[in-house]
Specification:
Rossmann fold; alpha/beta; 12 helices; two-stranded antiparallel sheet
């Protein structure tokens, strides 16, 4: 999977470079038709490398020759800027507008993978992880408050009100989502709609071009552990994929095997994303005391105080649907 992510990412970067070069050439052609002198200047500038090489191997004072070549180069560039400005163009109109100014859309900078390539690989990894999820199967429209009837009792009315407020919060969260949005902890018994609403948020913000990584806690920690012990795929790490995603959704926290590695990994994810001001949505059936016992007070404290906590209530919708013969 990592190799395929790399290939897709490099294809994107190569496309960016080809587009940048083509657009620069189109701008140059357009301007040179209006101002032929600029084409002459361009041709002279392109000969700079050859002139310097010739000067280096000449028997005369190469240093003086190179200095003169560079002065001529500067003079030509200045003349070009003046001609562009006089013709109503920005002075940098002919420069190549690369997507990434560091690697100039090659994918590599200073002998290493550029951050733009790493980000693309991580995004493609996230898309690959999401293929096996139910991202396209849940929406706000398909979330029904009918399973939380108001009824006559105080408890029923309260449950309906709470779930109405949670639905409205999630809709607003998705509509106003930004890369520095708050993190959310969805708590409550199984079958109350935590997964449904987190997937609905993911679906909405992905339509707006944001990158979402949706992963179940057991799958997440298994991948992290395989990488730690050298059993994972070669390439960018799962943590890099997590850090690159605009939103990370960890579903069913607490369903994974309980051990020190998973506890440390969760702390690392929570702490790192908070420090980077990057949002995470975590769904769990665990109550606060269980979170503290299982993952330590440090993790529980961060989840309960630095995340927006949504406490789901009601009856297991799956059981209600089963009882009613619904699919």
């Amino acid at each position: 999977m990592r190799n395929e992510s790399y290939k897709r990412s490099m294809k994107t970067i190569t496309g960016r470079r080809e587009t940048a070069l083509r657009e620069a050439e189109e701008r140059t052609t357009k301007v040179c038709l209006q101002v032929p002198r600029i084409r002459e200047i361009q041709n002279q500038l392109q000969q700079t490398g050859g002139k310097i090489a010739k000067a280096v191997f000449s028997k005369q004072d190469s240093r003086t020759q190179i200095e003169q070549i560079m002065l001529d180069n500067i003079r030509l560039q200045q003349e070009q800027r003046q001609l562009l400005e006089a013709s109503g163009y920005p002075t940098d109109y002919l420069e190549i507008e690369y997507f990434c100014r560091f690697c100039e859309d090659t994918g590599y900078w200073q002998g290493h993978q550029c951050e733009c390539l790493k980000k693309l690989i991580a995004e493609n990894n996230a898309l690959e992880f999401n293929r096996g999820s139910s991202l396209s199967l849940a929406s706000f429209d398909s979330f029904s408050l009918d399973y939380y009837p108001e009824g006559d009792s105080l408890h029923a009315a309260s449950s309906h009100r709470i779930m109405t407020e949670i639905l409205e919060f999630c809709q607003t969260y998705a509509a106003r989502f930004q890369k520095n949005a708050s993190s959310v902890l969805m708590m409550g018994d199984t079958g109350l709609g935590k997964t449904h609403l987190s997937l609905a948020i993911a679906g909405d913000i992905m339509k707006r071009g944001y990158t979402v990584l949706y992963v179940s806690a057991p799958d997440l920690f298994r991948k992290l552990q395989n990488e730690y012990y050298g059993r994972g795929d070669q390439g960018i790490s799962m943590m890099d994929t997590i850090l690159s995603a605009d939103l990370v959704i960890i579903d069913d926290l607490g369903a994974e095997i309980e051990n020190q590695f998973n506890t440390a990994s969760l702390y690392n994810i929570v702490n790192t994303k908070l420090n980077a001001k990057q949002p995470v949505i975590i769904n769990t059936n665990l109550v606060p005391k269980e979170l503290e016992r299982r993952y330590s007070s440090r993790v529980a404290s961060r989840l309960m105080t630095m995340y927006q906590c949504l406490k789901f209530v009601g009856k297991d919708i799956r059981l209600i649907k089963l009882k009613n013969g619904e699919s």
